[in-house]
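Thread title: Can someone regenerate the structure for this chain?

I was given the following input by a collaborator and told the matching structure tokens would be attached. They weren't. Posting the sequence so someone can regenerate them.
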Amino acid sequence: MYEILIVDDHTHLVDSLANALPWERMGISAVHKAYSGEEALELLQYHAIDILVTDIQMTGLSGLELVSAVKDKWVKIKSVILTGHDEFQYAQEAIRQGICDYLLKPVANEELESTLRGLIADLQRDGELLVNQQKLSYLFRESLPKLRESLLYELLGGKIPPASVLRDKLKLYELPYQETDPVLMLCMRIEEDFAGTDLYSVSLLEYALTNIADEIFSPRFHIWHCKDDYDYLVFLVRPKQPSESSEKEWMEEAERLARLVQHQIKRFLKIKVSLVMSNWSSFPGEVPAVYHNLLSLFTDYIGFQTESFFHDLQERNVEEIRPLSELYASPTFMQLLEVEQWDAAERKMIKVFEELERRENKTKEHVFEAYVTIMQAFSYYVHKKGKRFNDIYGREAEKMLRLDAGWSIEPLREWSFHSLGQLKSYSGSLSDSFRNDLIKRVVRFVNEQVKDVTLQSVADHVHLHPVYVSNLFKAETGENFSNYVLRVRMDTAMRLLKQKDLKINQIAQEVGYQKPQYFIKLFKTHYGMTPQEYKSGL
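Best answer:
Regenerated them for you:
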């Protein structure tokens, strides 16, 4: 969908054109209006305009001057000139400025629609050229390494997509892994301090490390790697021809190659690394648990030792005591509340309690673990808003702050969903209050600064982006910001006209217009009479 800007210093003509055509059917999602060239330039700063329709003769910045400015800064915008001047020199100048079409006023709706449809077709062709398949294919191939790393990083964190989505991603990223494939995991810790080393040098070193591992493993294994949050390099490997040998033989071969990687890194890169290697696990379901187990091996068995190699050969029961994986899977409760994704937080809470219910050993420790984590997220949200628990939860706050290790699953579930619902309700009321307060501040500023007010000055005053202010003002008041400013200026001008000692040109400047003739034109369009006629009738 495209956006169009209509510019004319005759406000009724702008409004008429804005309501004249079937914009949505033409593929235009937003119609913006400006009543001067200067206002048009301001709107262009904050909206992705595709087509500009402007009068050629306007008070202040002319249409040709506007198009020239647009051509310098927004080269992709298609421009159409509307004018009542059927003179060759205008057409010549318009062509020099890169005008796409030149229409005489009054222009028929059918003619304007035909012209705009042609420009939209041109824009679509330009877009197709911009994203041609060959270029996209090249860019995608260039991005594949990062896409693969990102997917493995998500799997390590427990963010496992639905099976069909994962299969599609694996196929798209050309990763030869399938559901329930037996895999081995390697976790590598670099035993060097790179504090003070520039990012480029560290990135080159990491590339060299992974390249050595790829070169050594790739003849017999598929290998897939990423870097985790602790700057460890994590590798997932599986045999290319699993039927050639037994799992025991493949594991022995993987260990031999892993030790060779460690040796070659020291020989060629002159740095020491420690490695831990997992037992066989099932892809992708067991990947997060295996990863967290390898992290534990670093702390429990290797510690501060360097150049270590540890192979975890333990057969692990999937129901052994371990953390609730869903609690810590990304995005966490805290991350979801940070951006107020209430529905996603509720879905995550459902998954947490499903995991609690599935465990054969539903220990009180796991219930307490869930309580502490959820409570921590609630605390973060409440305090981030500058509030205390009493402000949101009232009398229930005392119960929330009493750590009760004796809770069972059902009372915890009821408390969690109820408390989340209260936070969501508070957020909604806070948003309403914020918007109302913001609109009041905008209205007050416009009335106080009517002489110099602009969308940018209002945005600066409330410390928000101009596009957000403009869209919010329209949504909350039903009126475009520029229309509201015009109305305030005209109302102010009418009040000033009642003061006998003020001249028309003084009043024009007081309400923000440097050119009295432009002010007179706007006033007459707005009230149906000139300022002088109004003043004479008092």
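The longest strand covers residues 182-190.
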